[in-house]
């Protein structure tokens, strides 16, 4: 039985964990190419963490951070939907800061994958959200994430 501990954490708490967050990111994307660098991801975190409604859920086994998920509500001026494949229903991309929660990263260390941790993280994060819907961008070659 897996002794998985899930915990909601604020941006202030996450600021002290950036190195750990980056480590998990690099581990999860180790075989995904040169785009996945510590520097680029640190910039992404620095841009995302201050957003209103930003939320992180971490997964630990013993004291090891084995995965996490984070996201934030999409504001009215979001570029999230730029490049969406048309056609979409009228109003689909309209945002107001309360309609759609964007799941930005859902990561599990490679050695801990295929144990239900990603689903547990996803479900815990979204169980507390009040937005009408959630969205997650998934790479076209990530069949496992698309199926989930």
Q: How would you describe this structure to a colleague?
A:
This protein is an alpha+beta fold. It has 5 helices and 5 strands. The chain has helices spanning 11-15, 18-28, 38-48, 117-127, 143-147; strands at residues 4-9, 55-61, 64-73, 100-108, 133-136. Strands 1-2-3-4-5 form a 5-stranded mixed β-sheet. It is globular. The relative contact order is 0.18.
Secondary-structure map with pairings?
Elements: E1 4-9, H1 11-15, H2 18-28, H3 38-48, E2 55-61, E3 64-73, E4 100-108, H4 117-127, E5 133-136, H5 143-147
Helix pairs in contact: 2-3
Radius of gyration: 15 Å
Helix content estimate:
25-40%
Q: How much is the average pLDDT?
A: 93
Count of alpha/pi helices? 5
Described by the principal axes of the CA atoms, the overall outline is globular
Poorly predicted spans: none
Structural class designation: alpha+beta
- Could you give the order of strands across the largest sheet? 1-2-3-4-5
Succession of helices and strands? EHHHEEEHEH
Task: Find the count of extended strands (DSSP E, 2+ residues).
Answer: 5
The end-to-end span amounts to 22 Å
Beta strand % = 15-25%
Main beta sheet, described?
Answer: 5 strands, mixed
Multimeric state? single chain
Question: What would the keywords be for this entry?
Answer:
alpha+beta
Q: What's a quick, concise take on this entry?
A:
With 148 residues, the chain is of the alpha+beta class. Helices cover 29% and strands 24% of the residues. It is globular, with a radius of gyration of 15 Å.
């Amino acid at each position: 039985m897996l002794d998985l501990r899930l915990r909601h954490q604020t941006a202030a708490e996450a600021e002290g964990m950036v190195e750990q967050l980056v480590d998990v990111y690099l581990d999860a994307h180790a075989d995904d190419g040169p785009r996945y660098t510590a520097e680029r991801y640190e910039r992404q975190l620095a841009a995302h963490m201050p957003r209103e409604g930003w939320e992180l859920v971490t997964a630990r086994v013993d004291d090891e951070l084995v995965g996490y998920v984070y996201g934030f509500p999409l504001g009215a001026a979001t570029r999230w939907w730029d490049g969406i494949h048309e056609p979409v229903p009228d109003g689909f991309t309209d945002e107001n800061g309360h309609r759609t929660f964007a799941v930005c990263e859902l990561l599990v260390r490679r050695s801990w994958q295929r144990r239900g941790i990603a689903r547990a993280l996803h479900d815990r994060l979204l169980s507390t959200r009040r937005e009408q819907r959630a969205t997650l961008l998934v790479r076209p070659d990530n069949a496992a994430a698309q199926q989930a």
